[in-house]
């Protein structure tokens, strides 16, 4: 019999999550399989982009979907000879591939001046004669496999330990040393920005406007900087925290090109066959729309929070039932409460068919209890694995939640399936003595509200928000302050965000976050000012889909290649939110290549600013032109070392005279700037 006083673990039978056969240990983090799709052991695959738990060339989990085996988020292996980097010319003093790789290598190992894990694949790109380091001279260190806890990401007890496990590496310890220590709350964000001195080592400009733009949006643009400067920090945040009053952009209005977005659950069920014939997949169009909003919406902070909750209260886009129910979950649960009340979000989620089907609650009844939803409500969606609950608590919660399910595509409560009897869960007690739907549901909702407001939940939400907005190793002082605000405001999110933005720890943490693959790609589209209209030379042929719809799907597919896309994690944990989970040379190079494609205007479904017109009045000398391009694309000048590397890409000295095309090298130069740490860091 399990010791009720030890931290809870996954179910102890051999079936794993959702009652399917658990895959053999292969060096990857444990995975749990939702029926009827899920993980299965694949053939030999390339390096997984999601970090040190996925070893190059190792057998890893593979997603099994309706079309059979398909590698989830595979990326090309990292090493010399990757596509679009072998563009060196004979006699060039500094090879473009090596110079670009050196810039990217710096991005791979620098986060606020602390050394991150440098993978063997990145070393291969750099070559033995190129030494990558940051502008402050920090020594590059290996990402040692040891963790203070002695656990690898492949052997951690639960999903929620993944960030902690990654950050227990030597690279994570280096990051912790560069974190600002302690802090305080000011009267408002602007006051905090004005009074906070940035002492961390970083290559990023210590400009509060740029810092806010990097953290509270999906990427700096000249318009975002202008908006913050015009409204002021306080005014801009008030504007962003009231997204209903922000008018939709043209790109958001064009989402009418995605036919399934305006259909309700019943219509999606009724029209399933017709939609399939047209190639319209609701779960994919929902992701397409999310990508569009991340790139083009002015409601940027709202979209950042939507992405945050889609990782925290995670339901995968691709699951059996997702094609009908996931878009409604996005609209009616996540987006409806993203800046509102987390307890209300959790209540809404637990009555939504998407979550009930995803975690098999529909199969649970008093005489045959399924614990999946009850466990994840505790482990992932509220108190966290260290929140003090036991296996007995999980069982009691699972009994209490029996009766909830789905019928004909709608949420239902089945009294005949509901367990009746007193329950005690983590300090919550209830008589639960009636099968009457109103009384039984009231008992369930009372329990969910209780755990949503539990002190451990306050700390867990605070830790997650601080990790998203501040650093991979957020200061305890900030986490404690956010948790107190969460508790005092009964789980309302806006006050927590205002406390975060009014804290010195936020403003002191310049350069302490690195963009994950999806974030890098979205930031690149934003930086280049890609417009949502088809270019004049686009030929849509006889396609049933508009150029805009096709373009969004192309970005979606590219994100899948990179290993991260909205709501893409198949398991209920959501994506890791620390950079050492994402170190992959193949992923970096794939991102740089996409930047090159955008600069060249190769995706004709969109309109681009030609590279030679990114700077309105290009300077006549190469060094000054690099400075002007950097200011346009990343909002600041580069370090002397990075500037030299980029001039090497063009093969000219700083004083050389160049025309608007940089003597034919402007696309290569702009792509190199987008491979710099200044674009990888946020």
Could you describe the 3D structure shown?
With 682 residues, the chain is mainly alpha-helical. It has a domain of 69 residues. The chain is 44% helix and 4% strand. The chain contains 29 helices and 9 strands. The strands form 4 sheets. Strands 1-2-3 form a 3-stranded antiparallel β-sheet, with no helix packed on it. A hairpin with a 2-residue loop joins strand 2 and strand 3. Helix 23 runs parallel beside helix 25. It starts with 37 loop residues before the first strand and ends with a helix. Keywords: Membrane, Transmembrane, Transmembrane helix. It holds the Pfam family DUF1800.
List keywords for this structure.
two-stranded antiparallel ribbon; three-stranded antiparallel β-sheet; globular; single chain; 29 helices; mainly alpha; 682 residues; 44% helix
Chart the SSEs and their pairings:
Layout: E1 38-40, E2 62-65, E3 68-70, H1 96-109, E4 110-111, E5 114-115, H2 120-126, H3 162-167, H4 170-177, H5 189-195, H6 208-216, H7 222-240, H8 250-253, H9 265-270, H10 272-277, H11 282-296, H12 300-312, H13 322-337, H14 342-349, H15 353-358, H16 372-379, H17 391-400, E6 404-407, E7 410-413, E8 423-425, E9 428-430, H18 437-452, H19 455-469, H20 476-488, H21 493-501, H22 504-508, H23 517-527, H24 547-562, H25 585-599, H26 622-634, H27 640-650, H28 666-673, H29 677-680
Antiparallel strand pairs: 1-2, 2-3, 4-5, 6-7, 8-9
Helix pairs in contact: 1-2, 1-27, 6-7, 11-13, 11-23, 11-24, 13-14, 14-18, 16-17, 19-20, 20-21, 23-25, 25-28, 27-28
